[in-house]
UniProtKB/TrEMBL annotation:
<feature type="domain" description="ABC transporter">
    <location>
        <begin position="245"/>
        <end position="501"/>
    </location>
</feature>
<keyword id="KW-0472">Membrane</keyword>
<keyword id="KW-0067">ATP-binding</keyword>
<dbReference type="InterPro" id="IPR003439">
    <property type="entry name" value="ABC_transporter-like_ATP-bd"/>
</dbReference>
<dbReference type="Pfam" id="PF00005">
    <property type="entry name" value="ABC_tran"/>
</dbReference>
<keyword id="KW-0547">Nucleotide-binding</keyword>
<dbReference type="InterPro" id="IPR027417">
    <property type="entry name" value="P-loop_NTPase"/>
</dbReference>
<protein>
    <submittedName>
        <fullName>ABC-type sugar transport system ATPase subunit</fullName>
    </submittedName>
</protein>
<keyword id="KW-0813">Transport</keyword>
<dbReference type="InterPro" id="IPR050107">
    <property type="entry name" value="ABC_carbohydrate_import_ATPase"/>
</dbReference>
<keyword id="KW-0762">Sugar transport</keyword>
<dbReference type="InterPro" id="IPR017871">
    <property type="entry name" value="ABC_transporter-like_CS"/>
</dbReference>
<dbReference type="InterPro" id="IPR003593">
    <property type="entry name" value="AAA+_ATPase"/>
</dbReference>
<comment type="similarity">
    <text>Belongs to the ABC transporter superfamily.</text>
</comment>
<keyword id="KW-0677">Repeat</keyword>
<feature type="domain" description="ABC transporter">
    <location>
        <begin position="5"/>
        <end position="244"/>
    </location>
</feature>
Length: 502
């Protein structure tokens, strides 16, 4: 296969920090090449250089054998490089067709140009003929499932016929298994058309499912490149390459404690059309896990437990006392803290720095009498929490929008730790978080469970089964009971994806 991209001895510094140290990377036409590494390993910096967002300090880049300079995103696109970010910026009120050609709607340039809807529709049909995938592009994006929004973002990136390299950043982080299969179908179509794909993911099991090769980054260097088949046959451990150490089990050992104080009791909780007959007991000293796919009602259940959604029926008790949670403020007063699944819209103020976001969870604690902020104390608290969640880089004055998705998740969790609550509800706690940081966060959850009730709600079955002492599966809004309080991983998976009772 022909080499479409060659990057040699790429270096990049940010002050005293050497983000890339003599990196070599090659990409072949028509291959899917996974880029792996913990947060801060250098892979995002390399991609931003390739996308024209950052300028390299030294090194050479060749595309199709010809040297190029990628000084801007426009230059990268002109050389056939397109990117789809982890959170694609789409216009919800526009259709799929309108989003694909956003910014290029007019039949001719200038203020006098009119939107040529017929030309847009014909061009969209041509795209779907070139890359066959089932999708209704006349539907408003805001009404589309997550996978269709991702596909629209990909088609937007490929609207030019001369795109040869496509960068996909964590495209499956919010997709169900069925939706992931649809996206992988599109990726294989792109591959068959000769487009090379750089695929960034923290879901290591996907590497062997979709990637032809993978490259591991660590400490600003690419430390290994393997074909997926060779790595599988020789038993290569990707986590050990990423961390440069034996990983063992990333989940902390279960305490074996049972019968602790009941922190929350839920009986027959129901919200029509979303979930029904949900009952469980959450105790101090253990972690309770709820597994459910996207659309199963798990997200809505978490919001009902935090006062965002008012249930239609059922009861909630907090430490033995009936609780009617009218709103999140009421939930916070009752000692409940929610770490939301959508960190960007529900968990963070992206334009503000780490100290602001961390202490925002408890303004009473962060302020003197009279409402003046305790700047020195707040910074010390934020420094300690950044250390506990392994924030990288630990730059407290940086706006959280400048951090990677995984590090943004750490900041949300640090915000919860600052609140020092009695009940913690973690929703999709490690989406976009690398394997090394996951171990740190799971250990924090176990530590919290010693003094608080910890509920982990996730669409990742391995996560729920690995971190929790007891588990429940939610299937189409209804809990699936198990005879055994600790079902096997396969039993939990079958319950969550098929509604099978064991």
């Amino acid at each position: 296969m022909a080499t479409v991209l060659s990057m040699r001895q790429i270096e990049k510094r940010f002050g005293v920090v050497k983000a890339l140290d003599g990196v070599n990377f090659e990409l072949e036409a028509g291959e899917i090449h996974a880029l792996l590494g913990v947060n801060g390993a250098g892979k995002s910096t390399l991609i931003k250089i390739l996308s024209g967002v950052y300028a390299k300090d030294s090194g050479t880049i060749e595309i199709g054998g010809a040297p190029v300079e990628l000084g801007s995103p426009a230059a990268a696109i002109a050389h056939g490089i397109a990117s789809v970010q982890q959170h694609p910026e789409l216009v919800n009120d526009f259709t799929g067709v309108e989003n694909i050609f956003l910014g290029e709607e007019a039949g001719k340039p200038g203020l006098g140009g009119r939107i040529d809807r017929k030309a847009m529709r014909l061009a969209a049909q041509k795209l779907l003929k070139r890359f066959p995938i089932e999708i209704d592009l006349d539907r408003r994006v805001g009404e589309m499932p997550a996978v269709d929004r991702e596909i629209v973002a990909v088609l937007h990136a490929l609207r030019r016929e001369d795109i040869r390299i496509l960068i996909l950043d964590e495209p499956t982080s919010t997709l169900t298994e069925r939706e992931k299969a649809s996206l992988f179908q599109l990726m294989r179509s792109l591959k068959a058309a000769g487009i090379a794909i750089i695929y960034i993911t923290h879901r290591l099991e996907e590497v062997f499912e979709i990637a032809d090769r993978f490259t591991v980054f660590r400490g600003g260097r690419n430390v290994a490149t393997f074909t997926s088949r060779a790595a599988l046959e020789s038993g290569v451990s990707i986590p050990e390459l990423m961390l440069d150490e034996k990983t063992g089990d990333i989940f902390p050992p279960r305490t074996g404690e049972a019968g602790g104080e009941v922190m929350m009791e839920v009986r027959g909780l129901e919200k029509k059309g979303l979930f029904s007959d949900v009952s469980f007991t959450l105790r101090r000293g253990e972690i309770l896990g709820i597994f459910g796919l996207v659309g199963s009602g798990v997200d809505e259940l978490s919001k009902a437990l935090f006062g965002v959604i008012r249930p239609d029926g059922g009861e909630i008790e907090i430490q033995g006392k009936p609780a009617i949670l009218k709103d999140p403020h009421d939930a916070l007063k009752r000692g409940i803290f929610l770490v939301p699944g959508d960190r960007r819209t529900e968990g963070l103020t992206l334009s503000k720095d780490v100290v602001f976001n961390t202490t925002l969870a408890h303004l009473g604690k962060a302020s003197w009498i009279g409402g003046f902020l305790r700047f020195g104390r707040n910074r010390k608290a934020a420094e300690e929490l950044a250390r506990r969640v392994a924030l990288q880089p630990p730059k407290l004055d940086r706006p959280v929008s400048a951090f990677s998705g995984g590090n943004q998740q750490k900041i949300v969790i640090a915000k919860g730790l600052y609140r020092d609550s009695q009940i913690y509800i973690f929703v999709e706690p490690t989406v976009g978080v690398d394997i090394g940081a996951r171990a740190t966060l799971y250990a924090l959850m176990r530590e919290l469970s010693k003094k608080a009730g910890v509920l982990v709600i996730s669409s990742d079955c391995d996560e729920v089964h690995g971190v929790a002492d007891r588990t429940i599966a939610l299937y189409k809004g209804r809990p699936i009971a198990h005879a055994d309080a600790a079902p096997s991983r396969d039993q939990l998976l079958a319950a969550g994806i098929m509604g099978v009772r064991s």
